[in-house]
Amino acid sequence: MDLSAINPVLLIASLMVAATPILLAAIGELVVEKAGVLNLGVEGMMIVGAISGFAISVETGSPWLGFLAAAIGGAVLSLLFVLLTQVALANQVASGLALTLFGLGFSSLMGQGYVGVKPPQMDKLNIPVLTDLPVIGPILFGHDPVLYLGIALTAAVWAMLRYTRMGLVLRAVGENHDAAHALGYKVVRIRIMAIMFGGACAGLGGAYISLIRVPQWTEGMTAGVGWIALALVVFASWKPWRALLGAYLFGGVTVVQLNLQAAGVAIPVEYLAMSPYLITILVLVILSADKSRAPASLGRIFHATH
């Protein structure tokens, strides 16, 4: 066992990378749930985003076009959920599970020709002076632009929910869709936009895995990250900054357990691999005592009277 091989600076920098796909997916789902919709299809939208982004990035040579394609792919797949839950008024839980199963199968079909292919690399941000700072530079200023986009998106969603009319309307629809409808708000239209935003964020999170974190395509490579993002929204009590902290906790434990495996720690690999999920569940249980509650209309079907 050689713990001296673990570099703390690289560990923290890797933690931020590992947390980003979870954060992107969780922030998108947080907005969806704030609108009163429970979409369990996050995993499916992430994996479709992963292959859409990977394929377009490989074919065009541009990671940016890949990320754009991933966002579009996730949003388009979310329209299937819209059709089922907002038009056909189907059960949201069953529809979300169907979306995940469909996404896993569809991505497997799309990705058959891309196994073993290397995608083009995205350049890291190189901020003069700041990137060269000892310790702080590599940790905070040596990452790809999408990582910073995830943090900026968290801040933007927090500000939108707290300070804007749009955020107020979104929360009103999530709390009492009948009252919001009576006030003249287009409940279904607002929910469709929220669902598509959630789909685009999940797609970006998936592409981050296939283009940056693990730059390759393998079937089922999201490996439950979408489910962790769903749990994270509850653990965060529907608050964006808590989602950020939760994503970094899960990312941190994931990176630490990989480093411990590499260092040859005398703990069975299976237990180390389980640890991120166990610790996330433990924190979820501890924080469930929080007084914050879910949006009152979450998961309820809205029947427009006229």
TrEMBL record:
Keywords: Cell membrane, Membrane, Transmembrane, Transmembrane helix
InterPro entries in UniProt: ABC_transp_permease
Signal peptide: none
Top-rank lineage group of the source organism: Bacteria
GO MF entries: transmembrane transporter activity
Its membrane topology: Multi-pass membrane protein
Cellular-component GO terms for this entry: plasma membrane
Protein location: Cell membrane
Pfam families: BPD_transp_2 (PF02653)
Transmembrane region(s): 6-25, 37-58, 64-84, 96-115, 135-161, 192-214, 220-238, 245-265, 271-289
Protein name according to UniProt: ABC transporter permease
Species the sequence originates in: Phaeobacter gallaeciensis
